[in-house]
User: Fold these one by one.
Assistant:
Number 1:
Amino acid sequence: MATLADSFLADLEELSDNEADVNEEEGGVDATNMEEDIDGDIEDIEALNYDDLDNVSKLQKSQRFTDIMQKVEAALQNGSDISNHGMVLEDDPEYQLIVDCNVLSVDIENEIVIIHNFIRDKYRLKFPELESLVHHPIDYARVVKKIGNEMDLTLVDLEGLLPSAIIMVVSVTASTTSGKPLPEDVLQKTIDACDRALALDAAKKKVLDFVESRMSYIAPNLSAIVGSAVAAKLMGTAGGLSALAKMPACNVQLLGAKKKNLAGFSTATSQFRVGYLEQTEIFQSTPPPLRMRACRLLAAKSTLAARVDSTRGDPSGTAGRSFREEIHKKIEKWQEPPPAKQPKPLPVPDSEPKKKRGGRRLRKMKERYAVTDMRKLANRMLFGVPEESSLGDGLGEGYGMLGQAGSGKLRVSVGQSKLAAKVAKRFKEKSYGSSGATSGLTSSLAFTPVQGIELSNPQAHAHQLGGGTQSTYFSETGTFSKIKKT
Amino acid sequence: MSYLLTTLTKKKEIDTIIRDTIDKVLVLRFGRAMDALCLQLDDILAKSSRDVSKFADVALVDIDSEDVQVYVKYFDITLIPSTVFFFNAHHMKMDSGTADHTKWVGAFHRKQDFIDVVEVCYLLFLSNPLNWIMPSIQIVDPGSVDIIMVA
């Protein structure tokens, strides 16, 4: 290890002044591990210049990693041993191991991200678009490994690694990619990095399996609600039971949520805002319309259970089971049909005052039924002046003051009511605003015998009130012809 | 469907119900449960009893029972079904086009007719605070009730 370190050191001198990291290879102490990760992040920026994976990712070689993996494998092989509950939890070596496992799984995740960046940077020369098509780091690593240096993607079988739609997109993009094949040593390093990533992933799986098998011992209440697999995943992602307990429920709901969909796929069907909780039995058994509410409920109760577990308040798991019952009952209640509608008895007559409305709308409506000026004139009579009637000689309907006062007109021009203003405007536009259909010699002026030159055409008005020959049934300016109270 | 409406068989029951119904119209149907016309009327009464429940009470009187013969004689009930209207223990008279103004003989055609009669009873009596002046309702067409109010 030391000689290797020295040889790398020689390479590194010109590029970085971070000598400390090389000496940390022996680290089994947690403090130095933290530094490792930080250094890894700092180095990451300069990783582009690095040719070697080992300077970027150190976790796999660290002592801590190998220790824990050994213990985990041993424990998995021993099967579950029911440790004595009499012992205080913190002293129990298994519990310590589980805590370590949680921290380790987060570290592994970070490590995978770093390696993914490394692979991506190296592979960018060959196939730059791949990183935007395949998001998941492990999938990316697998695809890179499979494709290798191949330029023609039809020779590469990506079956089983990716969903077929994405395979199609990848093959199409590859045929038009701007990348060039990698040199042999770069390719080798990239493949190594992929292997490393896959190995880390396998290790993480093992750790999670172990945690899951011990879950009912670690967090009985949480696993009573969501099941041990999901509980292990939640704990792993959160980074420990106490970390999970500190999270608000909305965050717990989103733990493990997949990120955005691939371009071209509709987002209408995406199950939004659910994470690992989607895999719980309760969630799967609720009907789809209630799923969002059920998810929120689950997240809330599981957060409570996690808090109970983090303080070891209820080692037997009864609180978790009662939460589960509560959740079941609530979901049942949501599915109940609403109570049947009872017909209301009639109100006592005259006990409720009528609600009188007012305002512009009502006034407009009332205008349609208002008594017109013409009718008002017809209703009145002058003193001593006999009125005319429709059938003459006092028979038929009387015309009252209509047609009198020497105006010589039987027809009173219809007053401009506010309602009719719109109609009249439209009519005017039609007759005067006719574009191009009339000859150029027509004018809007009309020559009338009585008043001389008039702008508005009185003939048009006369037509309105109605020649019996013209049908007003289809008239655009006409209103109701007969209003009868029923 | 007379299981929805209370059936009175004793004089005392009739007394109590007339006395106890305050500020509500009381509708008493005199008849037999077996009679076809009675059944029609009972059907209408039962369906509308909930609707008018805020301002009216409906009850059935069985004219075959011994106890109520007093009332049968008092109201001079010969044809069934006969419906008598009360308000605040006052007997309401109405002119339904027949000679007999004290009661309504026969069934109603529609639920709405019955509801109209009851509403008018209520309105008239409420508008008239001196309860001992008996307003009368004139029912012009017994088939479909168009009510013309005569104070």
Note: Confidence is low (pLDDT under 50) at residues 17-49, 462-467 of chain A.
Number 2:
Amino acid sequence: MRTTYLTSLRTAFNPFSRTSHVPRLFLQLLPVNAHKSIKITQAVLPRTTKTPATLELGFKDGRTMTFNWAESAAGQGVTGVKEKDEKPTQLADIVEEVERHARILGRKEELQGHAMLGRGAVLLLE
Amino acid sequence: MPPRIHLQSFARPSSSQSSSRFVCVQCRHATAAATVPAPTESQILNSAPSTQRYSQITPPSHRDPAYRKSQLLRTYVSLLQTTPLIILFQHNNLKALEWASIRRELANALQKVDETQLKDRGPEAYIPISDSIKLTVIRTNMFEPALRITEYYKPTVVKGMPVPAQPHGIEDERLDPSLTHTLSRAAHDIAAKHRNQHPLTPLLTGPLAVLTFPTVSPQHVRAALSILAPQAPIFPAPTRRANPGYHEPATQEGLKKLMMLGARIDGQVFDTEGVRWVGGIEGGIDGLRAQLVGMLQGFGAGITTTLEAASRNLWLTVEGRRRMLEEQSTPKKEEAGAEVVGGESTGEKAT
């Protein structure tokens, strides 16, 4: 997972609930020196809390992604809210989103870099 | 992967190669140098129902004991049975240097607690435990069945006692009811019935490390939390001046990646707030006992007072009336006009 374009990560979950599964595994996917480049805030909620588990990601271009995992009424399984979908958000979905955004930002940077290079080359020729 | 444990050191029966047990490709290449020791004379002569047909060291197991996973399972069951206080942490990609720094700081803090306790209580009354408190990274997928076995497998068969003979014999040596060890079929069957039942199960995903204490000692918990999960005012982190090693970049970076999740104390499951409550108990376990005794004594006195109150009130009323009558009769004798007000007028009425 390319986390070079991540600037902030905020998460809160109740570890005694199955809803904490995805945020906890996402934290594990971060690189070793993540805390140096990403502002990470992690909170462990009490066991009896009714607050859904949350994960907020902030990127370099200002884009933010928010994910929630609320416990279902039956207490079994997890109902997550991801924009308009009713299926719970899986770790693979989040990873894919982060990768996709990283690719887009990477491409933008590359184009800007080439544009700079192009201008420089023109100046030299002149 | 081939088993790491050298099989020549174990004496395994040849039936371990039976086709009924699945063995993966790598394991099939691992051969066992197996010989069953010949039965002793006493075994031949006294044929009890539970004849020792297999080695004490490696009795028939549901899981092959040659694998690291099986030995880890035994280790974790032993850990869970011997450590009444376990705090669980999630560790996210800590470097070896960060681990070393954190363990060093933790050891120093716990050592200080031991020194204080030894000074206060003396070496006869106190056994130092800081050497036995360890922060271990665990294999979560083996810790989970170990927890199930510890919690739910309570064998009634006592080692050494004769087991009633099975009427039709047993078809497989692994089903022998006298086998009660961690890797036995009996343990596996019981544990398998209780999947996802323990409240600690949702915690057991992802990378976990456990801090194990050989006894429930709130003072040590407080010291450990001040290092690993500080929170003012009860668990303040050491200051830069007092402990410069704590504020090194390696330690600080490592601590950012450690997250306390919960604890298992005396079989009970606690969350982070519960752990902080246990750490905040003043005076340790002895202090808690003293508080309990004081409370019970006070409670006893209160009960006695309440029960006595009714009869005491009645006595007071009657006594007051008696005195009033006495005082009334004495002025009549003395022919004194002084009015005597019952000094003991009862404000309380008998309820």
Note: Chain B has a mean pLDDT of 83.
